[in-house]
Amino acid sequence: MRQFIANFILFQLSWLALVGGAGRGLLWPGLLLSSIFLAWELSISQNRKGLCALLALGLVGGVIVDGSYASFNIIDYAMPAGPLAPWWIMGLWLIFSLTLPQSMAWMRSRPIIGSLMAGVAAPMSYIAGLKLGAVTFPLGFWPTFAITAATWIPAIYIMVLLSIRLIPQTNAEFSSDTAHISPQADSDHRTLEQS
Q: What averages of pLDDT result for each successive group of 10 residues across the chain (195 residues)?
């Protein structure tokens, strides 16, 4: 439970540092907090290889989704990177990927519901970015809301399904599974291993 809470808090703080920092033209707050978050998650992961693959998948998602928004002038980003998604947006995709095996792990058993909820939460995130000065909507509010919702629903669905494949059992699931093993079952397991 502590890992879940820490993951949630570190995600929120990193998100605010990345987006708020970009809105003010500051690089270091987002880099610092997201680096701490990344290092902590890697240090506690039961499956670092799977987590690194999930992070790479998050970067690909950022290149495709937010790179398309930048290329087609759907969203204008603070601290732009030409036709590509800026560094701070790529940082957001990385830190979001870190939540899938932890604080967003509930989506693994309900990927359709999680994806539909992302269709509302993601546009709200961009709206928060607008209020923090990190993005503007050249097409206007409602078209941008609709486009971000329509692209995030399938993006999150794919990411959740691939996270299940890359990290079959999350740290939280591993902890709860091992917590339910009775002393007798543990003893029986050791006896079988010795024979």
A: 92 98 95 97 94 96 96 95 90 96 93 95 97 97 97 96 88 45 42 43
pTM: 0.84
Give per-residue pLDDT as tens, 78-89: 998 888 899 999
Distance of CA 156 to the CA centre of its chain: 9
How far apart CA 149 and CA 76 sit, in angstroms, is 17
76: three-class secondary structure by DSSP: strand
Q: Give the model confidence (pLDDT) of 56-67 as tens digits.
A: 999 999 999 999
d(CA 29, CA 17): 5
Instruction: Locate 158 and state its tokens.
Output: 């794919």
| Strand stretches in 44-147, DSSP E | 76-77, 135-136
Instruction: Please list the residues that pair with 76 across neighbouring strands.
Output: 136
d(C-alpha 147, C-alpha 75), whole Å:
10
Q: Is 102 exposed, middle or buried (0-12, 13-18, 19+ CB in 10 A)?
A: buried
Q: What is the pLDDT of residue 171?
A: 52
**Cβ 55 vs Cβ 39: under 8 Å:** no
CB 129 within 8 A of CB 19: yes
137, exposed or middle or buried, with CB in 10 Å at 0-12, 13-18, 19+? buried
